[in-house]
Amino acid sequence: METTEEIINNNDKLSFVEFLNTVKWLVIFCFKLSPFTTICTVTARIFLDLSPLFTAYIFARLLDKIIKIATSSSPNLNDVIPLLGLLLLVNLIISALDSAYLYFMDVMSDLTVFKAPQILYKHIHSLGIQTLENPEVANKVQRSKEILYSLDTSFSRVITFISRIITSFSALFIIFKIMPTIAIIIFIALVPGLISNRYYMKKSWKLVRDETENKRRSSFIFDSLIETSNLQEITITSAYGYLSNIYNYFTHRFMLADLKIYKDWQTYGFLFGSITEIASIFGYFSILKNLFNKLISVGDVTFQMRSLDIFISNLQALGSNYSSLYERCIRVNEVKQVFDMKPMLADGLIELPIFEIAPKIKFDKVVFKYPNADRFTIKNLSLEIKPGEKIAIVGENGAGKTTLVKLLARFYKVSDGEIFLNDNNIDDVKISSWYKNLSVLFQDYNTYSALTLKENIYLGKSDEKLDENKIKIAAQRANVDSFIGNYKKGYDQVLSEKFKGGTRPSTGQWQKIAIARFFYRNSPVIVFDEPTASIDAVSEAEIFGQIYDFFKDKTVIIISHRFSTVRNADKIYVLADGEIVESGSHTQLMKLKGNYYKAFNVQAKGYK
Q1: CA separation for the pair 205, 328 (Å, rounded)
Q2: Which residues form the domain of 490?
């Protein structure tokens, strides 16, 4: 199996073996969605594609019977009733199979729309942040999302391809007995069209792949142009025209390139298709010649001509199906590759307990550089956090504060050095067991606007039964009770005006709700990354008082560039360019009159 790195670097080529593997993966994936639906759909499609041969044969026998009766001296119409009854039965079965096929394809469509995304996001969740933040992985995931909802269409093409192979060989068996030379000519005539289709489908998919980054950018702009929260600034700054031009430029350029490919594709398709049409006329001539030589009956002529039509149409469709399926498989292969990916960061084996007393955390000469980055974000950094200690990490933007949090959460593995939880290297720890002991409120905190206020807080510890009393305590600690009175439905208020009866919290209110979520979680180790950036000074002071009081026996790490918010921490680390340049209590750092002292005074002047 390919490694994740090999999958990421895969190009748009797909060998025949890879094509077959992708087809196999797609069938297995659909089978996992619903075994019964998959089997019924395949069976119905095969019999539907074979049905024209059945009906042609019955009709041929019926025609011979009619001619025989018509030329008889004592015609008896009852002689045709058994064949008419058989034809009716076959037509009813075909009609039932057609309805069943449409129904089962509709079931498969629902499964790919609703169940397949669940499988995808579950797998993506398992890959880890370091894997998902790779730009090419992001591109593959983006393309997978676009393709995922049409997997039922791809599956339909697979079973149609299989059924056409079966039908073609069935018709070939009939035609080859009658006119082997014509059958060979038709086979040869299909080859140029097949090559042409494959060439242009690859070209079409290459365009899609090459433009994925630009398509993501244009999709982002499109979302910005229809999102209410973005339109406020766009309207005032008159940015609409500029953003619209970016979107229009991409779509216009992409459409021109796409249409040029399809124009050439269809032109050559017509030319190569003409060869097959000429060959079919020679086939008709051969059949009629046998009739005139009294070698076959009129019914046989009907059956053989129909079989020839079925043979040619199925071969043409088979060539087109293969090319079309090959194109789809290049795209479906993107989904397969995403599902084949493994986390770049292997999980550890050590299962941590849920700590009653937070573990000692130690950064030992840690060095870190983001993948594909030119510079180190963290340089030879060492610090030790004692159980229950309240520490703060301060510094200017870009100093490496948030990166430290990502390393502590093991979203990334250190480039050099080690991080210890008690005596365990964090790389050796089963990460899910560490997360049960850790809370991190990132500066880009989540807002679940489709959920209620209560649910937004409950998500802090949603693996346990909701505790109404703890929800209210967490809300009070985070100062949420200062505005909950404005909500008609209180804790059951949906937090978006885009839902009936919903309302939109302000940015500061959202931040308080996010903080409440982590009061509710109440884990042994709590990290707040710029927790009060959008909150007024009075609320900020109240919340920080609550943080130090509520998490009295917990380890609390506060990341901030606002020095006034961290003065009561047990120890403050000043970060600059990925290194700790100063450490100590607020009083000790002020006496040093170094970076902290200067920055604190500069910020203090801003409040005067």
Answers
A1: 9
A2: 446-522
